[in-house]
Structures
1.
Amino acid sequence: MNTSTLSTTPQNVKSPKPRYGDRFMPARVGNSWHVTYPESPDKKVVKDEVDIDSDDDTAKPSSNTEVLDEQCSTYSCLLKNEVLGYDFDSSTVLDSPKKSSCRKLFILLIYKFERISSSSQKLLRTPVNKRRRIPKTPYKVLDAPDLADDFYLNLLDWSSQDVVGIGLGTHVYMWSAVNSEVTSLVDMQEFRDRPTSIKWNEKGDLLAIGSHEGCIRIYDTENKKCIFEEQLHDQRVPVLDWSGNNIFSGSKDRCVKVMDVRAPECGAVHSYSGHKQEVCGLKWSSFNSSLASGGNDNAVMLWSLHARKPIMTLKEHEAAIKGLSWSPHSRHVLASGGGTQDRCIKFWNTITGSCVASIDTNSQVCNIEWSPYSNEIVSTHGYAHNHVAIWKYPSLKLVAKLKGHTQRVLYMALAPDGETICTGASDETLRFWKVFEKSPCRVKKSSLDLFDGIR
């Protein structure tokens, strides 16, 4: 017998069992505790979150630890049910885009353990939540020749009857989103003038047009007939807004004026003075009967129809304010966006006059719109990134950044469905994006909203 073979331990011979001493404590050597009982992750990666970088604006994909994090979160709830006696059975703990990929791992537990609690069974059988996806490209692109490259103008609007109005050169056109038919409403060359702003009324049957010469004309779009014409300002009218039968106009003459279009012969024109430079933003709030105006003097002013002086002046921007939007979820929250030297979106409590939040967007803010279904806003930007951005409020997280325009996205209009926007840029194109979605979830109302309890 060869002794050399005796000195070598065979490969298939197992090592002796460990000795435990006088207490029976199973050895844990060799167990994969980081797999069997993973800890809850401290940081979760969100797949659709976009990091803003001044040098690189592209979205950075999430890391491979995302799946492990989600497994840890759900598996942790399952272990707490079975080991610690918790009762996690709500689908909220499984709100994860990778839940379907983790499900196979958890289903094995049903076969591994003969008995699991009813809470754990319900946890495993919870249907997969559908993840929201925002298209990164527009679903339609239209040519818009002669679209003015002017930050202060407002030449695009979308009516409640699903018709897009657009001012191109000296013409005003209408494009039907139902049948894609294009109609010319008016050529203002006959007045030796050109449009500087347009705005549909609430019913969507009248279109108001502000002109470079300070005149306001209102057209019955079905009959293509001008039913109202008035020289309200001495200089151009870059912005308009409606409140029922009242039309508001802001002008380069630094005045805001309001007129009831039902009785123009009575001369019922009220003028509001306060801005020191051109007025380029207007937004009426029917909730609290207030008008917000933004100007080239870097100020936001709030007006009441019963006073000729501003009831509040908000001064924290460092550039012209064109983008203004009242929150449909919190009656006294106003969002405003500043120009190239400011680049911020600010949120105001219009009861106290304080700025409650601010976003540095790193780009000129041209337009802002709130989602009617969720606490999100969409903004369009000029220098230097020329993009469309979607933000959550009040977390101020960037949801998505949409690129397609090659120049400043100066114009934006929200569709009547509340899900789609149309954007216009100085690259002479109109692009249509789906940015919001209808959600069955109710938005949490602000504690400042005191009117819902009054009937």
2.
Amino acid sequence: MALMGVQLVVSLLAATIMQRMAPHCSFARWLLCNGSLLRFKHPSEGELCALAGKQITKPNKKDRRQNGHRENKPLTVPKDIDLRLESTPVNPLDALVLRFFIEYQWLIDFAIYATGIFLFTEGYYSVVDASKEVNIGVIWCVLTVFFCLRSLHTLMSHYFSSDEGGERSVCLAFGFLSLLVAMLVLVVREDYLEFGLEPGFNSLFDNLEVFAKQQGYAWSVPITKLTVKLGLACVCAFVGALLAFPGLRLAQTHLDALQLNADRPFIKILLHISFLSPLLVLVLWVKPIARDFLANAPMGKTTVTLIPSSAFNTVRLWTVVALCVLRLLVVRFHMQAYLNLSQKWVEQMKREAGRIAAIDIQRKVTRIFCYLTVVTLQYLIPILLILFSTLALKSLGDFSWGFVEETPGVTPALVLPTSPPPVSGLEDDEESEDMEEEVQATVARLAEAFHGLCAILTPLFFRGFFAFFTWWVAACQVISSLFGIYFHQYLMHN
């Protein structure tokens, strides 16, 4: 199998360009600093004193000498002052103070380059017969999924390291809830949820059984199936805990974005479709609602085939990709709705009685802006997880973007290729020839191991695994975002 080729050269070139161009040209930095997002500046103490009708008094030098340990009282102003925050576009210099900005920039830029590599490999495979080459685009997609989960884990670790235990309790609650839901989903038959997990696991276990017998190991399939499913349920619980706060944040920004665009009905429709897109992804894998209904749609007393069953997989892939693109297009409305929380908080403060410290007003306004990249990551990462797991599902599952019938490659009996024994040379062979033979033997062993891995992990297994992962990420976001809607609409007002 050819490991070096055009794909690897393009992949190394893309990695080099990403490293060199990041300080100068970054899509992640442009997304926040292109001038379309407006942040609010915190008021100075002089402005607050002017609004409160008082002057700032500074102690003189004599007072400082006499009262060396005199405690300076914080400046306080009435909460009902006529405070109006000044807005300004977010610029690259402002991004330097944002929390997790480096992680945000690297992840989003990596996802952009991964998309470019995937598109190149798709075009390359459509023109050249590269069946003997490793699909580099799939490796970039899987790495993007892994880096997205790592970024979510970093954010969740930040919640666990804080002194307040509210965020920690929310993550643990959603983790246990996700574990319960995952265990229920894994026992649903394929007639209702057509992930393909059972055929994929059967193919995997059959090949592993043959491989274990060839290597002389004992094998117990029933125990292994139960262990794998329990492990998969634990992974689902971990993913559910990671996606708890992104879903809650999505609910809040969605409601604020609707209020911000109340006079723009077309944008409101796009926002509603974007918010409901994870629910649409769930429905695509419910067989009685999606595949069976579209293949036999009732029209009076007859049935009409809207989408043939052979083309349904392709339609499902295109639908998921289109929904992800739609959610990416409305990201600016959600981020602006988050930044407007500063003005919203000020308006709420004006309706309260009493006094507030000026430093508290400044901290609140500044803190909202400093967490802009965190909110952006919480919005984008679930989209990237669904998108790149779908792209990996297409390539590793041997699907097609065209409307053709696919037949997944299945390996009924595992036969590992054997490398030819090295040719023994004369006793007086040179040392360079011995090293060359060792290199050739190492390459042969690596190729043999890769062939064995490809024979064990068949496209049928990848279809089930990535279909389930895509569905599960959408399910976690549906659960957390709907709970967030209920929390912000009802519990916050009670």
3.
Amino acid sequence: MSEAYDSNEVQGNILRGYRNNMVRYLILEVSDLAAARRFLAASADGTDADVPKITRSAWWATKPDVCFNIGVTYEGLRALGTPGECLDSFPTEFVEGMRARAMKLGDFGSSAPEHWPAPFDQPERVHIIASIYVDEEHHLDVVQGQVARAFNVIGVRNGRNLADQKVFFGYQDSISQPKFRHVDDPEQAAANEPADPLGTVLLGYPTRMQGLEFSIPQPRELGFNGAFNAFRILAQDAQGFETYLDKAADMLLTHPRAKDLLVPGTEDRIGAGLDRHGALREVVAAQMCGRWRNGMPYETSPDAQWPKSEEPGALTNFDYHHGSRCPAGAHMRRVNPRGGPIVQRIANYTRRLVRRGMSYGPDFDPANPDSQERGLLGNFIGANFGAQFEAVMCDWLNLGLQDPTVTGSNDPLIGANSPETSWFDLTLPKEGTIRLRGFPRFVTTRGGAYTFLPSLSAIRYLSRLTG
């Protein structure tokens, strides 16, 4: 490493998951510069009981009641008085911001920024996004009140964990995260994938690409040990997804090769009590995602969702290869091709992102559909937007450039799809595929921002700015 890693210098939400029940995101505007700087100083030092303390990456003996962190936008750095020569040292993607990068991210049509609600319709006012993770709801209002004394709160977004760690599409989530060198994470102990260098997410450390470290914004005190985060509000059309699974299963009931996809008489291996239609729709769901809805990887268990393996590492320890049963176009394989065959060989494991997310909106009942918005509050953390987040979103999710068999198709779950052009190939045990068509866009962007997650030293630096 370039310098010894100090876990007390790194914000805690970068390298660790908090596993709290709830989160509240506060979208903040700097309206009183002196008050904002005082808040940052107190939050970094943790000396004022009336200011929430920034949570560090260091492991704690006793979990705190509140985990508090901040991300600063380019406009936020300007509002805090960051000198122009320092602002010029930040990468172009961050300077331009998420709205300006919309086409690269697939944010067009119904996802276009002109449809984003307040406050993301005024990006020049979005200066800081603060996250408050708690298990007890009353802490959220207390911390929001503390923050509101120093900033103008222009937006609030609440998230929560759904039962069984699932998302509204019914899949178990939060299964696989990068495993980092020099970081002792008990939750990753059973994972046998290669350990990623800290430079995957932190500025100032080596990356997987030989001899390459991403540039550090200057001064070093500001940039070192920082990371970049794409904060995204993603509406999920859970009812539309379930409706499409019905449509796909209807088609497969009469398809001549459906017996190869699911051997008649084995429906109970997909789910107890499922008829053939119900089992086929779950096979489609599993291949589109790359996991069964209970979390089992399709790669290691292509013919059965049940029984679910309880072996340590059963959900994470697998790889892809030529002839894999998991489709090359599956969501999980697109976002993390692991060591599997891809055209861009150097890109294996170099585009890893830390994902933090919680659901928002009311519970979803497929039997009683409604029109209420629900979805995911997502954070996608890395050391470089262009080489990681944007490359995954554009090259892999919405172009399929990593594999010639999926080039020209979009990710079936979160891609920028339309019924007129969408397609996805289901794999069969032997040779051949069954092509699905006509599915709509299931995930729509409803707002977001590119933020910089400063180190503790950087937060103190920002608090000491003058002018």
4.
Amino acid sequence: MAVATAPFALRPVAAQEAGRIVVVGGGFGGGTVARLLAGAGHDVTLVEKNARFSTCPFSNTVLGGLNPMEAITFSLDGIAATGARIVQGEAVGVDGQSLMLASGEALPFDRLVLSPGIDLRFDAISGYDEAAAEIMPHAWKAGPQTELLRSQLEAMPDGGTVAICPPANPFRCPPGPYERASLIAHYLKAEKPNSKILILDAKDGFSKRDLFEEAWATLYPGMIEWVPFSLGGNVTSVDPAAMTITTDFDSYEVDVANIIPPQRAAAIAQAVGVADETGWCPVDGVTFESTLMPGIHVLGDASLAGAMPKSGFSANAQGKVVAAAIDAMLRGEDPQSPKYINTCYSLAGPDYGFTVAGTYEVTGGEIVSIDGTGGTSPLGAGEDVHAAEADYARAWYETVTRQIWG
């Protein structure tokens, strides 16, 4: 099935109004900004570390055996076809009005857009560093870590225990760890039915909890155990050599450990000075211009976007707003105050989906929820409803990835 989406394009810019825009990050936010501004005739350079972009949305379907990695990995050629220059490299700082790359190249800009995603705080859990992540993968950046975790699940014996350890808020994709538990359970139920999933959580609640727990009881009874913060779920240390995880109250020996540590905005945001003491980047809600560094826009997971969650849908919506705001500024016009939508789909199984949605407006420069809007899928829905929601999730993903990278 298809999901109807309103077309979004900027009107062609006159030569004297065109600006030089450098965008860091070719994902849901940065890819959207680059495509729209280049398509309108602006001089756009997109900097991305990787030749191909693997999406965190739908990476859990790879872990659950529903998709290969190729299904969530995209070329940047579609963005290049709009006229954007693609530079594969690592942004390391800003010198005046130029973005500096690790290669030494300087990219001059009139406006800089940072959509760099997250960095993992390897200092937050004792024993968990980048070396440990090669044994206890986080898989919170899609790519090799996703493949590593999938291979560990395939190698695990029937009857083994998989631990998933989510951090406290805020972090990328709040429902993601629980969708991950669901889709791993789907794989284990079919291939290793005597296995167990243990969720050791640094929180006492999580997004769509009632819907997830209803799905677990229906699809995977007795397979998934959630241990909240108040009952000792908070992970304090790990020992990769012994495959043990220690919490405030207990210690667990497991076969596969998915440790998702706390996060912050990616290193380039820290280096440029757009991140505050929280590790995230405060922005103006209308333009996503940094409140710390004028002329630099920060969007997606790296930003502090008020009530909007850190999700691919949010980043794509923010990308459209940022592109329109920059285009207006370069034309000498005032950006319009936007309204935002976020819809977060979760799959508990191939034919079992549900949704949380929200709408937002800007008040006093802050993004706030609009009262009386949004909500979640109903509890107690029938199989046909959940199957339709799973179709909606796949259709959204197909539509948005085609719009950005197609």
